[in-house]
TrEMBL record:
<dbReference type="InterPro" id="IPR030666">
    <property type="entry name" value="IPP_transferase_euk"/>
</dbReference>
<keyword id="KW-0963">Cytoplasm</keyword>
<keyword id="KW-0819">tRNA processing</keyword>
<dbReference type="InterPro" id="IPR027417">
    <property type="entry name" value="P-loop_NTPase"/>
</dbReference>
<dbReference type="InterPro" id="IPR018022">
    <property type="entry name" value="IPT"/>
</dbReference>
<dbReference type="GO" id="GO:0006400">
    <property type="term" value="P:tRNA modification"/>
</dbReference>
<dbReference type="GO" id="GO:0005739">
    <property type="term" value="C:mitochondrion"/>
</dbReference>
<dbReference type="GO" id="GO:0052381">
    <property type="term" value="F:tRNA dimethylallyltransferase activity"/>
</dbReference>
<comment type="similarity">
    <text>Belongs to the IPP transferase family.</text>
</comment>
<feature type="region of interest" description="Disordered">
    <location>
        <begin position="185"/>
        <end position="204"/>
    </location>
</feature>
<dbReference type="GO" id="GO:0005524">
    <property type="term" value="F:ATP binding"/>
</dbReference>
<comment type="function">
    <text>Catalyzes the transfer of a dimethylallyl group onto the adenine at position 37.</text>
</comment>
<keyword id="KW-0067">ATP-binding</keyword>
<dbReference type="InterPro" id="IPR039657">
    <property type="entry name" value="Dimethylallyltransferase"/>
</dbReference>
<keyword id="KW-0808">Transferase</keyword>
<keyword id="KW-0547">Nucleotide-binding</keyword>
<dbReference type="Pfam" id="PF01715">
    <property type="entry name" value="IPPT"/>
</dbReference>
Length: 478
C-alpha cells in the first residue's frame, strides 16, 4: 500500500468567476482543511466588494488566512513577502493536522509558492540592504523606469514592449531586491538540472532544486469555463457588486487618496496595489460627476453606463490574462516538473450541475491524492481536459531569451519583442494599410519626380532651341 504524501498541498486555480473559492470551501469541509488566500487584491483590509472577498456565510466556518492583511497606507506585498507569509501559514495549518488549500486568482503568486527555487526565493547578497529610496524609481514614468532597467539589465529592457509598465517595473524591482539582473537569474535557473519530485522521500526539500520542481507534493485543480459561458457571468457580477455597495467603496478609496495626497505631499502610486483593482478607476468619472452634483440625470446615467461597460470589459480582459498565464506559464512549469499527472481540469460551465461536474470529481481526486493512491489520468476525465491540459508549446517564452527579438517597424513605428509578435504585426490590417499608403506615397512621389524631370527636359529642349534660333538670327549665314 502506498504511503500518503508528506506535507500535501491542494492548489485551486482558474479565471475569475469560475467558482474557485466555492470549491475550496467544499474541499476544506470534506478533508479537514484550511484555506490560504492567493489573490493580491484580497490581501487588503476592508473593500469586500471591489476585491470580491468571500463572505462569512460563504466560508461556512472554514478558517481563511491572508485575507485583509494590508492597510491602504502600507506597501504592496512583493511576491517574496507573499510566499514567506504563505509558507508560515501552511506550516501552522499542518501543525494542527489539517490540509492546506491555496486558492486565488493571482497566479504569479500561486506559481511562485508552488515551485521551490522560484524568483521569490532570491535574496540580496549578504550585508546588502534595499531602502525605500531605492524603490522610489518604480513610481517614475514608464520611460524613466525603462531607461534605468536598460542600464542595469539591457536584456530584460529589450524583452518588454515600452508600454508594458508593470512588467518593466517587475524586472527592475527584481534587480533592486536581489542585486542581480533578472536575465542573469533566469539564465542561472535554466542551467540547473531538472529534479523530479519523489513524494515518498522523508526529506522533500532536499530533493528540490529550482523552479522546475514542486516545493511540496501538490494537487492542482483547475476550474474552467469557456468564454461564452464565463463572460455573461462576469457581466452580471458587476451589477451585483453595485447592488452590494461598490460605489461606496469607490468613494471611500477616493477620499483616502485625497486625504493621503494632502497630508503626505506626495501622490499615491495608482499604478500598483489596490489602486489597480477592477471597479475603482473605471468608476472615478462617475464618482466625480456624483460629487459635482450633475443635474442632468440622463447625463449621469450615461456616465454610469459607460463605467459599468468599462468595468465589464476590464474583468473580461483580466479573465483572459489569467487563462493565458495558466495555459502558457503554469502548464509549462508543471510539465517541466514532470507533475502533469497531478493537474486536473474541472468543467465549471454548467452551474446547475456544479456538484456533479466539479465538487464530486474534486472530492474523489483529492481523496486519492491525500491517501497516496494512484490518480486517474487527467486527460481522460473529459474532452475539455484533453484539449487544455497540454501546453500550446513546449517552452515558456519568458525563460527563453534566445527567442527574444526586439524589432521596430520602420513603416508603423510599432515595437515587437518576439518573433510571434513581429509576425502578428506584419500580418495585421493596420500594418498592411500603412504599407499600402506608403507605397502610394512613394509612387506619387516617383510620378512627381518623373514629371519634374520630364518638364525640366522639355524646358531644356525649349531653351536649347531658343538659343539655337538666337544664334542663327545673330549670325546669319553669308
Amino acid at each position: 500500500m502506498k504511503q500518503p504524501p508528506l506535507r500535501p498541498l491542494v492548489a485551486i486555480v482558474g479565471a475569475t468567476g469560475t467558482g474557485k473559492s466555492d470549491l475550496a470551501v467544499d474541499i476544506a469541509r470534506k478533508f479537514n482543511g484550511e484555506i490560504i488566500n492567493g489573490d493580491a487584491m484580497q490581501l487588503y483590509r476592508g473593500l469586500p466588494v471591489i476585491t470580491n472577498k468571500i463572505t462569512e456565510a460563504e466560508m461556512q466556518g472554514v478558517p481563511h488566512h491572508l485575507l485583509g492583511c494590508i492597510g491602504l497606507d502600507e506597501e504592496t506585498w512583493t511576491v517574496g513577502k507573499f510566499v514567506g507569509n504563505a509558507l508560515r501559514v501552511i506550516s501552522e495549518i499542518r501543525s494542527r493536522g489539517r490540509l492546506p488549500i491555496l486558492v486565488g486568482g493571482t497566479h504569479y503568486y500561486t506559481q511562485s509558492l508552488l515551485f521551490k527555487g522560484s524568483l521569490s526565493d532570491e535574496s540580496l547578497p549578504d550585508g546588502e540592504e534595499v531602502t525605500m529610496e531605492d524603490f522610489a524609481i518604480l513610481s517614475e514614468p514608464t520611460d524613466v523606469i525603462l531607461e534605468k532597467l536598460r542600464e542595469v539589465d539591457p536584456v530584460m529592457a529589450d524583452r518588454w514592449h515600452p508600454n508594458e509598465r508593470r512588467k518593466i517595473q517587475r524586472s527592475l524591482e527584481l534587480y533592486l531586491r536581489t542585486g542581480k539582473p533578472a536575465s542573469e537569474i533566469y539564465n542561472e535557473q535554466r542551467k540547473r538540472p531538472d529534479t523530479p519530485l519523489d513524494q515518498a522521500s522523508p526529506d522533500i526539500d532536499s530533493d528540490l532544486t529550482t523552479g522546475t520542481a514542486f516545493r511540496f507534493p501538490t494537487l492542482v485543480l483547475w476550474v474552467h469555463a469557456p468564454k461564452d459561458v464565463l463572460y455573461p457571468r462576469l457581466e452580471a457580477r458587476i451589477h451585483r457588486m453595485i447592488d452590494r455597495g461598490l460605489l461606496d467603496e469607490v468613494r471611500s478609496l477616493a477620499n483616502f487618496r485625497i486625504s493621503h495626497d494632502t497630508s503626505n505631499g506626495t501622490p499615491v502610486d495608482q499604478s500598483r496595489g489596490i489602486w489597480v483593482s477592477i471597479g475603482y478607476k473605471e468608476f472615478l468619472d462617475y464618482q466625480s460627476a456624483m460629487s459635482g452634483k450633475l443635474e442632468d440625470a440622463s447625463g449621469l446615467d450615461k456616465i454610469k453606463t459607460m463605467a459599468i461597460e468599462r468595468t465589464q470589459a476590464a474583468t473580461r480582459q483580466y479573465a483572459n490574462r489569467q487563462l493565458r498565464w495558466i495555459r502558457i506559464k503554469l502548464l509549462n512549469a508543471i510539465w517541466s516538473a514532470k507533475q502533469q499527472e497531478n493537474l486536473f481540469l474541472l468543467d465549471g460551465s454548467d452551474i446547475s450541475r456544479w456538484d456533479d461536474l466539479v465538487v464530486h470529481p474534486a472530492w474523489k481526486i483529492t481523496a486519492r491524492f491525500v491517501s497516496g493512491d494512484s490518480l486517474p489520468k487527467p486527460t481522460e476525465l473529459s474532452a475539455l481536459a484533453r484539449e487544455l491540459l497540454t501546453p500550446k508549446r513546449d517552452y515558456d517564452l519568458g525563460r527563453r531569451p534566445d527567442l527574444w527579438q526586439r524589432r521596430v517597424c520602420e513603416t508603423c513605428g510599432t515595437v515587437a519583442v518576439t518573433e510571434n509578435d513581429w509576425e502578428l504585426h506584419r500580418k495585421s490590417r493596420g500594418h498592411r494599410r500603412a504599407v499600402g499608403l506608403k507605397k502610394k506615397q512613394e509612387n506619387a512621389s516617383h510620378i512627381r519626380s518623373r514629371d519634374l524631370i520630364t518638364a525640366q527636359t522639355e524646358l531644356l529642349d525649349v531653351l536649347e532651341a531658343s538659343l539655337h534660333t538666337f544664334a542663327e538670327e545673330d549670325c546669319p549665314e553669308h
